[in-house]
Design a protein that fits this description.
alpha+beta; Glycosyltransferase; 4 domains; globular
Length: 668
Amino acid sequence: MPNRLSESLSPYLLQHAHNPVDWQPWDEAALTRARTEQKPIFLSIGYSACHWCHVMERESFENPAVAEVLNAHFISIKVDREERPDLDDLYMDAVQALTGRGGWPMSVWLTPDLEPFYGGTYFPPEARGGMPGFISLLTRIAELWREDRAGVVGQAGHLAAELRWQAGVEAGTDLPDAALLEAALGQLRRGFDPRWGGFGPAPKFPQQMAVELILARGSKEDQAMALRTLDAMWEGGMYDHLGGGFARYSVDGQWLVPHFEKMLYDNAQLVSCYLAAFQATGEPRYSRVARETLDYLLRDLQDPGGGFHSSEDADSEGEEGKFYAFTPQEVREALGRGDGERFCAAFGITDLGNFEHGTSVIHRFSCAPEASLPEGEAQRLRERLRLWRDRRVRPGKDDKVLTAWNGLALSALARGYQVLGDGRFLEAAQSCAAFLQRELWGEGGLLRVWRQGRAHTAGFLEDHAALMEGLLDLFEADFDPGWMRWAEALGEDLLRRFHDAAAGGFFSTEAGRADLIFRQKPGFDNAIPSGNTLAARSLLRLSRHLRREDFRLAAEGALRCFGPSMGKSPRAFLGMLGVLDQALRDPMNVALSGHPADPGVRAMLGEVHRRYLPGRVLSVSPDQLLPLHEGRGSKAGQALAFVCRGRTCAPPVTSAQDLARLLQAAAM
């Protein structure tokens, strides 16, 4: 008989709807039941693509003996971390405070007043590897609640007070200076792996914000670190050489064996990194990786309505990576003997294998020079093998649409069109924005989650901020002023709902949430830039487009607020340091007066888009209604280009060649 999770829209919660555990969603009914029955809450947080979440479900949550203990002594609540990042952040801090580490599945025990008192991540059903068995742990916690409830509640109160204190931000008053940027670059230099790229030991994560900061601010020697990292990720097995796109991370230091789940947010951000590298170097391999990754988004993650789904699982048929790994025999079966053997030699597929069960993860770096294939032939064989692979059972997909992650995808698609000139990417960006506006934006404000025609959950700080940035990138691709007006409305909504006008910065949630023990002000940048990073970055850009001082002051207020924290731990704030870099630079504004479809304007746009100009603001308009175009009309239908650096503006020019000279001079 299904439990209450069967009423949910979340694919992750629905995976648990037929467990014998009496699962509840996180809602008022479940929380009221805990208070009424005075039972502790067992809170399990995970997500659909999480491998170890699946393992714990098979071992424990499908186990009748485990369910019997949970149902007798606890109110068991299951949360999709992607739907409720506020709960995930809050209770992850608790688990890390209790154990010194975190991860998913997250397991936390709470009092009926929602204060945590014990936690961990994955627990096996029986004790092993230094971990307690789940049934014995549940039994012991139930005994403690029955025999020493006052002590447990007191411990929970102390931990909640400690978490509240830790969540407080020691707000600064001054805008940090460039010394912080150099401190962060110094830490990245010391952590860089010169052989394999990346920053630090295994497991290795993409660290998109490190790459972007280095490309924007670093020396030529520093930029070599970023490029080596991008090359190593692409050459290794973390990149899907058949279908495009990147896995979540590499379990080893060589980028060889990935944790195979593929997340929308990783791939959207990596597209932007590879596009920036292409602009900075002109190397076609970076544009090829960006294009193939965007193709992956369009082919495998795009919803028919226009939005983008959240992720693809690591597992298929109950095995991690089974969809992606090959034996030489399988490759020969797909490509024929001759092409198959040449492909195996070029992409590291061997009889011994480099993964489980004698299979190999496809990669490039172990290929002998004489075995490499011309790129055209490699592309042809990769596509043939991809089509053969598509006959396999695909990994599960989380098909919910999240506003924040779609904002990142919107940026990637719009930037992809700008740099690569492929109209498919612009069309997809416009379709995505229209979907978000139609399904997730209304009189009540922005919502976070959509699936199967239904939207829910009030948007968080990161949803407003990521969507704002995506709309700005889309405006700078098609120059429809409607996107700018929507971004401005989101900015005003963001200030009203989340801004801490007294101390600076932004809370992740609105005030008055009864199901949170306190509001957090997220600053640390993780796999996704923090809500404060996204808010400061988008507001700063929007202020330069619209000349709105309130947006600029709010963005700089976040930088001031987190200044002391950035000084203590620069590497924890790489995304926010990227915003600081832009705040400290004289802004570059490029305004083209003319119609976006005019051939002269198109030629000028080509000069802008092919150059790496971090932080530049771009606008095209045939009239003078946008702030950057006031007093800057075209002459007798002839397009004009205006370039300003800070408060210094060059005389307008009328040709792409003259604009190229201005851009080169302004970038120095």
